[in-house]
């Protein structure tokens, strides 16, 4: 069942990563608990385990493209399972967030809300930075982490220079 709200406060969109859950086995990707949280739903689930560094890198790429106007919609997938969230420009200061579960024949809407672009971008930046720091503390290095670092810097650059005509972010 889908839910819809205007999510009026700053807790309208959060990325929950449990930093203590992050782990890396030799040449494997970093895994850990990650979920999207709105006032109405935790998506895909409170205890969702996934490839945290890889999915954050994907999400940064998608949101950066939405901010720059090179795509009308950011499709932010989870690696494990049939889940993704989509962001599309709704108005100057709101993006439409849709939480989706892909099935063999279509997509099921798990929830929908309007969120502030600045909140989404700040949350992505904060989360990516925290994950990068935790991986650095653990002396983990691999190509996925290098790519996450590059995409984090790209987001930070767009965050400073993207004007209000692209989704409501002011320079």
Descriptive account of the structure:
The protein is an alpha+beta fold and 171 residues long. It has one domain. Helices cover 33% and strands 28% of the residues. The protein has 3 helices and 9 strands. The strands form 2 sheets. It has a 5-stranded mixed sheet with strand order 1-9-8-7-6. Strand 7 and strand 8 form a beta hairpin. Helix 1 runs parallel beside helix 3 and helix 2 packs antiparallel against helix 3. It starts with a strand and ends in a 10-residue tail after the last helix.
Short description:
Helix content is 33%, strand content 28%.
Radius of gyration equals 15 Å
Shape: globular
Low-confidence region ranges: 1-10, 162-168
The end-to-end span amounts to: 38 Å
Listing every helix as H and every strand as E from the N terminus to the C terminus, the arrangement reads EEEEEHEEEEHH
Structural class by secondary-structure content: alpha+beta
* Residue share in helix: 25-40%
Task: Note the beta-strand portion.
Answer: 25-35%
Total strand segments: 9
Number of helices: 3
The major sheet is characterized as: 5 strands, mixed
- Average pLDDT, all residues: 88
The tally of structural domains comes to 1
Spatial strand sequence of the major β-sheet: 1-9-8-7-6
């Amino acid at each position: 069942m889908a839910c819809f709200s205007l999510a009026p406060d700053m807790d309208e969109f959060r990325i929950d990563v449990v930093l203590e859950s992050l782990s890396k086995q030799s040449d494997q990707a970093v895994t850990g608990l990650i979920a999207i949280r709105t006032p109405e739903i935790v998506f895909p689930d409170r205890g969702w385990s996934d490839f945290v560094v890889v999915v954050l890198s994907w999400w940064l790429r998608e949101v950066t493209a939405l901010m720059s106007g090179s795509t009308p919609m950011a499709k932010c997938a989870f690696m494990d399972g049939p889940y993704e969230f989509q962001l599309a420009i709704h108005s100057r200061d709101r993006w439409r967030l849709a939480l989706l579960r892909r099935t063999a024949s279509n997509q099921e809407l798990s929830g929908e809300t309007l969120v502030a672009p600045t909140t989404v971008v700040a949350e992505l930046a904060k989360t990516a930075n925290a994950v990068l720091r935790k991986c650095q503390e653990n002396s983990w290095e691999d190509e996925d982490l290098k790519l996450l670092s590059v995409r984090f810097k790209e987001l930070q650059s767009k965050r400073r220079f993207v004007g209000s005509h692209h989704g409501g972010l002011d320079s």
